[in-house]
Amino acid sequence: MATRDLTVVLQVAERAAEAAGELIRQWSGRPEVVDTKSGPHDLVTEVDRRCESVIRETIRDAFPDDFILGEETVAQYGGAEVVLGAEHEDLWVVDPIDGTTNFVAGIPFCSVSIAYAHRGILEVGMVYHPYLKEQFSAVRSGGAFLNGRPIRVSSASTLSESVLGTGFPSGEHARAVNTKGMVDLAPRCRNIRTLGSAALHLAYVACGRLTGFWETHLNPWDMAAGALLVQEAGGQVTDIEGRPYTLEVRHVVGTNGLIHGELLGRLKGAMAAEI
Ligand code: 2AM
Ligand code: CA
């Protein structure tokens, strides 16, 4: 149980997300790609780094002793596994731009994802779409909200009525494996969307726009905030084997709960042996 006031934590996350969102709107479609990370599909721009800096400063001003696990600075701490293994009491998990490929291309669909966990348990999640100014937020046991209004997962009860989200993760192997899931599911669901931001896909599951989402080989910052959103909106989040979501999960399945078993069964059959 967190001892601090989670309303204050949420306000800090909101301020940080809005500051990053301002930069994203300003630079959309005209950033310079300054680097690739794990491979040629994995872009990073100066704006990703500036967004992470402004988020870090905002968090540090309010909570100077907290640890911040951010996508653009994680390498200097030895990687996500090392940071999670250190069991920080108060941990923020930050993706300054989730959907950098869209951002670079000028496609207005990406998000800022900020989560706060106390002793490894997610307590606050915020996913912000800076172009539509849609702010998805959740506090553990407090429900999930879109711009302050309560949201809930969809009521579809079968795969055939479901619109599913997934992605093309970075890396040849990851892409090949995840695509097997798409090939299996495409004829069995209403349709599949790959919108380019894992965090927003999970937020869309939380508000019922998508029925479910899966993707393999993700990193904690792609999922942490969105996972709490789905849980607090009445949905279910597990790994691909059906184990409950934790910050260590890489292969995630998040749904309205009603289709969870059916989707897991298909994905396990199509992909699990090859992950
Ligand atoms: P990003 O824009 O923050 O990199 C698209 O399938 C999703 O995969 C996006 O959420 C994207 O986030 C994420 N992604 C891109 N490269 C990745 C990598 N090397 N490892 C894990 N996730 C990645
Ligand atoms: Ca990112």
UniProtKB/TrEMBL annotation:
It is an enzyme of class 3 (hydrolase). One of its GO terms (molecular function) is inositol monophosphate 1-phosphatase activity. Keywords: Hydrolase, Magnesium, Metal-binding. Its EC number is 3.1.3.25. GO terms for biological process: inositol metabolic process; phosphatidylinositol phosphate biosynthetic process; signal transduction. Pfam families: Inositol_P. InterPro entries: IMPase, Inositol_monophosphatase-like, Inositol_monophosphatase_CS. Gene3D superfamilies: 3.40.190.80, Fructose-1,6-Bisphosphatase, subunit A, domain 1. Mg(2+) binds at E71, D95, I97, D98, D222. It catalyses: a myo-inositol phosphate + H2O = myo-inositol + phosphate. Its cofactor is Mg(2+). Belongs to the inositol monophosphatase superfamily. This is Inositol-1-monophosphatase. The lineage of its organism: Bacteria, Bacillati, Bacillota, Bacilli, Bacillales.
